[in-house]
Structures are given as structure tokens and as C-alpha cells.
Amino acid sequence: MSEVYIDGKFIGTVENPEEFVQQVREERRSSKIPDGLNISYNKVSDEVQIELSNGRARRPLIVVKDGKSLLTEDTLKKLQKNELVWSDLIKQGLVEYLDTSEEENAYVAFSEEELTKEHTHLEITPLDMFSLSTSLVPFANHTLSTRVHGGSKSQKQAVGFYTANFPVRIDTDVSVLHNPQVPVVQSMVYDISESDKHPAGQNIVVAILSYEGYNMEDGVIINKSAIEYGMGRSSYFRPASAEELRYSGGLVDEISIPDKEVKGYRIEKDYRFLEDDGIIHPESKVKEGDVVIGKTSPPRFLSGMDEYNLASNVRRESSIAMKHGEQGTVDFVMITENEEGNKLVQVRLRDLRIPEIGDKFASRHGQKGVVGIILPETDMPFTARGVTPDIIFSPHGIPSRMTVSHLLELIAGKTGALSGRYVDGTTFNSEPEEALREELLSLGFREDGTETLYNGMTGRVMKAKIYIGDMYYLRLKHMVANKLHSRARGPIQLLTRQPTEGRAKEGGLRLGEMEKDCFVAHGASLLLKERFDSDRTIVPICEECGLVAVYDRFKNRSYCPMCGEDTEVSNVELSYAFKLMLDELKSMGVYPRLELKEKY
Questions:
Q1: Using CA atoms, how far apart are residues 397 and 150, in angstroms rounded to an integer?
Q2: Which of residues 324 and 226 earns the better pLDDT score?
Q3: Mind giving me the DSSP string for 172-230?
Q4: C-alpha span between 490 and 510 (Å, rounded)
Q5: Cα torsion 491, 493, 496, 502: sign
Q6: Are 377 and 224 in contact (CB under 8 A)?
Q7: Is 533 a catalytic residue?
Q8: Is 194 left (phi over 0), alpha (psi -120 to 50) or beta?
């Protein structure tokens, strides 16, 4: 007797489990029981598991009987004529959804030619194992799965035309590509998903060669003329907003140009773009520190005695200003109300982003790299026909990564561009490589995609034939302008007196053990004295008890609160974080005694 479980709960037993499972499946296919049910039999544990729970991943497969697909030519014709719809296929039992447990008992064929008597199901298309963005990668069946996955991720990070109504939207941290193009090499899913309505890349000429070493380690060399013609140009948008909040006691924020009496008033120059209402005007060019929305708030802490204090009625400055390292143009200003009916001001800032050294580019095959140098067109290699590549890609990225689809797209893109058509690069169902090679040969080019190139700097013929073709390249949202970070002096934390953390807070850059080793190896070990004193402090230490003493600045004398005034107190240079640790140890009742020795 085999036990039967529904969603993990025991409900009874059956004598012939395999016959029972088959019978339940037949009932499901004839729509007598819900199609959301999945049933499987585990021979090892002798259990029948029935699943009806929510949130299971299930996929559709065509049902196969006696080695033949139930989805016949007649049914397909009816589907094309719209006489049948998807739900009809499920009701008639031609297609069924399987979850992971039922899939264990299924034998699925990739294509109709593979079908045998043992097969139970047939794939609708092998492409349905991929997600939407992964299925857009052309010739993906020629590449390792990890690289295809990487290509899928790159497409999600690509700068493109994300929505048509972007001029009237206020989105956080978005970019819009100025000249987006539809790829020459496409997948079947490209049309189905209507991706041509929001493209995210450009078709460019790519040559594969090492050139002057500027494209080592996944770097790419970019043609300066291509950038001047508009390749990879984008606009970066980010919002700044302020609202007039209401506080207890009838106090409110006020959006206006702050008065000079306001606590925390900046310099006059910072408020120069503000109009009479305290809001910046469109098309102002702003930089770090410039105020975008002027705002004042009531004093932070109001206690009982404060109403008699004249200074307490001074409002404080709480304007929205450009952060560290930011710049741009005011693109759009909106004045409205929030849910509570308070005044809300939103300002959108725009920044033109032209590709520069350090910006990230990628193909759709997980081959990502940063710009190593931007070369003038005169220094770029050129073909006999006078074509200069837009990007030079390093050949070392190919052997270990085995992204054959990257190479195939170059040939397919070249063929498509020369013959003026789109090339089908759908995974498992693409145009054959042989046909593309023949077409390229008929167009007057070498069938292997290589050409003779001339060195742009010397004018000499390059000895090796260079692989060159057309490809859909993506500019990714990771740009140097958003990541660039440096600091000389700046804000520190209240507790440890060490520099704040992170680029947004104008924080410090940490120097660790390995960086220290580099300095020592370069003979710059004395630089460590400067690097490691971000929180240097001078602390008086009592030589008797070893605890931190007190320095009375008014009387200009040091004494120990434990031992009295007669003991010797020495000033010691140490890290403030260490002094903090001593204080924390004292709070736990531990006596952290410092034994001082003379410096020899």
C-alpha cells in the first residue's frame, strides 16, 4: 500500500500507485479536476504527492502519447486562425503545466524529431527555459550558461529609452540614451516583447585586436569620432524635493529664500539661483553646494524655558543643495501638494553624459569592459575600404570565456548591415552560420569575417587578418561621474572622530594592510604617519594609575581625578578610537591601565 499526501498532509493509501497517478492525470487533462493540481509518485519512499499550494513554479509542456505530439497540424492552423486560444489547449489536455515534483516523472523531448515511445512531453520551444531578457541574447546556445546569464544582467543595466513619457516623470537615478537603435541581430522574442519600442543600445563596428595595450584586462578602445557623432551619449536625471512639514504647536517649514538671521545661513552666492518663491529657475547650471530649493524650519528643540529666550525663536536653515561631486542643469520644476495637503516642490536635474575613460560598455554576451582610452580617428586602424572601428575589443576575452555567440554576432551583424536586413539569432533556432558565411562571401567580403587592417599610426599593413564586424553594444549605467570619489579633509563622525563613511557623505578612503604593504614596497613608508592619523588626539595620562587624566584649560594644568594633583601627568599621542575603547572598558568595570615608558 502506498501513502497519498495532499500538500504534505496524509489522506489515505492506494494499492496501485502508478495506475492511480496516471488516472488522476487523465482526469486533469479532461478538465474533470482543476488544472492547478500536480501529482507525482516517488518509488524510493513509496509515496504519492499531490500539490495544490500557491507560489509553485510551473511550466507548460505539450502532452505526448505513443511517441506522437497531441498538438497536431490541424490544431496549429486553428490557433493561427484564432479559432482556438491558449486556455482551449489546456482544457483539451493538449498542453499541461508541470511543477518540479511532477517533472521528475516526465521524459521531455527537445524537438519533434527526437520523440520516441518513452517520451511523455514535448517542449513548446526550447527557448522557454530562458527569461525575457535572457532570451534576447542572440545565438545563446553557442555560449556557456554563466556568460548568457551575464549578458541578461548587462541588458538590464543598459542605458536606453526606458519610457516615452520620461519628460513628464520624476524618477530616481535614471538615464536616457540619445540615439537608441534596434539591433540588426535579433531574437524572436524581440518582436513578441515589443522591445523595439524601448531599445537600449547601438549598432557599432567592432574590431577584435590588441592595440597599444590600452584594451588589456577587458578594456575597450573607443573611436573619438564615434563619440562626436553621438555614440553612447545619454542624459542622467535625478530628483531633488522638499515639502513644508507641519510640526506640533502650529509650527511649519517655509519654502523661501532664507533670511540672514536664520541659524546655519550659507553664503549669499549659494542662493544666487533662487527666485522670489525660494525655488530655482529651470535651465540653471548648478554645481556642488548650490541651493536648489530654499527652506527654513522651526527650531529643533522647544523646552519650557525657551519661550523667554530670544535666540530660541531663530529658525534654522534646511535648504536642499547639490551634494558633494554633483553638477547639472535644472530640467523641470513642479509645485504641488502631498497627501496631507502640504506644499511639495520637486526639481529634476539633468546632466549630459558623454562617454569618457572609465565608463562601462558591454555586448549582449556577458562581455563587459571599461573604456581604456578614447583615440582620435586618425590613430585608429582602418580597413582597405576606409572603415574604422568604433570599438576595439581585446581578443583575450574570448578563449577562456568561450563566448562563441559574441563572434557569431559580429558575422551576423556584418551580413545584416551589408544586405540591409535583420538577422534572426534566436537561441536554438537561429540562421545557420554556414548560410551567413555564404551571404557574406557573395557580398564581396571574406567569409570568415576577417579583413586586412592598416595601422592608423604608421599606415603599415597589419600582418594578421583582423576579425571585424557589426555588433549591438550597450552603454551601462555604471559611469565614472557617479563613482568618482576623493577627499582631502572633511566631515568626521561624532563618536570615533574618524572620517565619515561613503561617497554620499564625503567620506574618507580606507587604507588597509595591503595598501600599507604597497607604500612600504615603494619606499614611501613615512607616508603611513600621515595616512594613519585620521583620528590622532593628545590625551593626558596619569603615570601613577595609568588612567586618562584631566587637562584644565582655564588654569592650564593637568591633574588625575584618581590620584590627586601631585602626580606626574604626561601627554600621549594616540588614536581617538583607542581612547573610546578605554572609556568603554571602564564602563564595564575593567581597569585599562596604560604603562608609560620613555621614548628612546
A1: 14
A2: 226
A3: SSEEEESS----SEE-HHHHHTTGGGS---EEEEEEE---TTTT-TT-EEEEHHHHHTT
A4: 14
A5: negative
A6: yes
A7: no
A8: left
Gap between the Cα atoms of 575 and 573, Å rounded: 7
What is the rounded distance in angstroms from the CA atom of residue 77 to the CA atom of residue 79?
5
Torsion sign, CA atoms 222, 226, 231, 237: positive
pLDDT at 300 over 80: no
| Burial track 96-108 (b if 16+ CB lie within 10 A, e otherwise) | bbbbebbeebeeb
- Residues 96 and 89: their CA atoms lie apart, in Å, by 8
**φ, ψ dihedrals at 169, nearest 5°:** -110, 155
Q: Is the pLDDT of residue 33 over 80?
A: yes
**Number of alpha carbons in the 13 Å side-chain half-sphere of residue 508:** 18
**Can you tell me the distance from the alpha carbon of 231 to that of 179, in angstroms, rounded to the nearest whole number?**
8
Taking the model in full, what pTM does it have?
0.84
Report the greatest alpha carbon distance in the chain: 108
Residue 395: all three cell numbers together: 581578443
Sort strands 423-424 and 185-186 into parallel, antiparallel or unpaired. parallel
Q: Which domains does the chain have, with CATH numbers?
A: 2-124 (no CATH), 135-162+184-233+357-475 (2.40.270.10), 235-353 (2.40.50.150), 536-587 (3.90.1800.10)
Q: Exactly one of 218, 270, 379, 424 is catalytic; which is it?
A: 218
Is 94 within 8 Å of 71 (Cβ atoms)? yes
Give the distance, in angstroms, between the CA of residue 308 and the centroid of all CA atoms in the same chain. Answer: 54
Distance CA 185, CA 204 (A): 12
Residues linked to residue 212 through DSSP beta bridges, in sequence order? none
CA distance 467 to 444: 16
- 274: cell is 533662487
Q: Is the pLDDT of residue 311 over 60?
A: no
Residue 17 cell numbers, joined: 500507485
Buried b (16+ CB within 10 A) or exposed e, 283-314: ebebeeebbbbbbbbbbeeeeeeeeeeeeeee
Give 264's contacts (C-beta < 8 A, 6+ positions apart).
316, 317, 318
Residue reference for cell 547639472 = 328
CA distances in angstroms from 152 to 25, 196, 425, listed in the order given: 36, 17, 15
Phi, psi dihedral angles at 69 (to 5 degrees): -70, 140
C-alpha distance from residue 35 to each of 39, 85, 270, 317 (Å): 11, 16, 66, 63
Start-end of H helices in 430-575: 433-442, 480-483, 513-521, 527-531
The average confidence (pLDDT) of the chain is: 91
Give the three-state DSSP class for 524: coil
Q: Are 32 and 23 in contact (CB under 8 A)?
A: no
Contact 349, 320 (CB under 8 A): no
Instruction: Tell me what pLDDT residue 566 has.
Output: 81
Measured N-to-C along each axis, helices 433-442 and 404-419 cross at an angle, to the nearest 10 degrees, of: 40
Partners of 328 in the β-ladder = 286
